[in-house]
């Protein structure tokens, strides 16, 4: 072959050989690198056939799967004590694709009315367009079993419901679902497997917005589904088809965050309990929603299911007042920023009626117990005394 020209040498030098050299090295990277490649190269046709035919394992195209999503899937599977996991580009895509994979036109779903607003919107408005009916049932005070119909396929709830922090009985609901041959999905975003493992209580699928505590640093958007292998096997082709893959960089950041999940969620929970106890006694606070409080109607149920006396980093509080008072408190906190998300290292405040549950009608807000005087705090990893001092000073302004 004649000597190659400059552009050819620039493009092909190293070409695949770099990776083979690493694979043959006596050492391995201490941390899995980021695989920033959209596709994988093969020497011949049978090698690709073998992967498509499941004769060997391997990577073909990063929308299907890539090493960084595989790495996170293994960590999440181990954390939950489950069988398999999938990673998605957002919590919403994880939830929507996992639901669409198991229902068809004419089917029926039972869901809690107190859910993340986007999921409520999907269940209430989008699924109807596909001929799937949803009944919203109060999982705490009503009997879910009563609403099961011959075409019911799925029961859906959150472990700690957003934003009122209600805690349904997971085992009881899983048993009802399985008695009737239904699937039971649980969004465990607020709790994480540090606080509770819904899988151990019988959930078929545990869903996450990994944007929140799993990511934990407010720098990635992602989602995950962790659970039984046969359920994951139904969802996997839909994830590939709809193309909601988590990027290698975001998956790498998520893997790094998961290494410290237990440390972080333990501190988030310990701090949140202290803040909840402070707010509970404050004269300008009408009501505090936190399952760790002995006064919470959810406390006993939560304590029976949750690990190590931890109740998570999220809490809500009703101020004595409405939108004016809520706005004053929000504007009076210098480091506790108004952030329409949650679960970063810093304490933040959100306002469900104006952000996550904005799409709710007045009636839906009332039914879900969401008011204009209600603030939701994501308690961070700062010193608890400093968090309390800042909230205390802001409450003095109303
Ligand atoms: N589930 C819960 C409980 C959430 O709070 C959110 C978002 O706030 C989602 C799901 C949706 O996740 P994402 O924003 O990553 O799509």
Beta-strand portion reads: 5-15%
The overall pLDDT, averaged over residues, is 95
Main sheet strand line-up: 1-7-6-5-4-2-3
Q: Which structural class do the helices and strands define?
A: alpha/beta
**Overall form:** globular
Please give the count of helices: 15
CATH architecture of the largest domain: 3-Layer(aba) Sandwich
Q: Would you mind describing this structure in some detail?
A:
It is a single chain. This protein has 398 residues and is an alpha/beta fold. The protein folds into two domains: 62-258, 3-Layer(aba) Sandwich (Aspartate Aminotransferase, domain 2); 261-395, Aspartate Aminotransferase, domain 1, CATH 3.90.1150.10. It is 39% helix and 14% strand. It contains 15 helices and twelve strands. The protein has helices spanning 6-12, 17-24, 45-52, 67-80, 91-100, 117-129, 170-179, 192-195, 229-242, 248-258, 261-280, 299-305, 323-331, 362-368, 384-395; strands at residues 84-88, 108-111, 133-136, 152-158, 183-187, 205-209, 223-227, 285-289, 314-319, 337-338, 348-350, 374-378. The chain has a seven-stranded mixed sheet with strand order 1-7-6-5-4-2-3, sandwiched between helices. Strands 8-9-12-11-10 form a five-stranded mixed sheet, with helices on one face. Helix 4 runs parallel beside helix 10 (248-258) and helix 5 (91-100) packs across helix 9. The longest helix is centred in the last third of the chain and has 20 residues, at 261-280. It is globular. The termini are far apart. The mean pLDDT is 95. It binds pyridoxal-5'-phosphate. Pyridoxal-5'-phosphate binds at residues 90-92, 116, 118-119, 158, 162, 187, 189-190, 209, 211, 221, 223, 356.
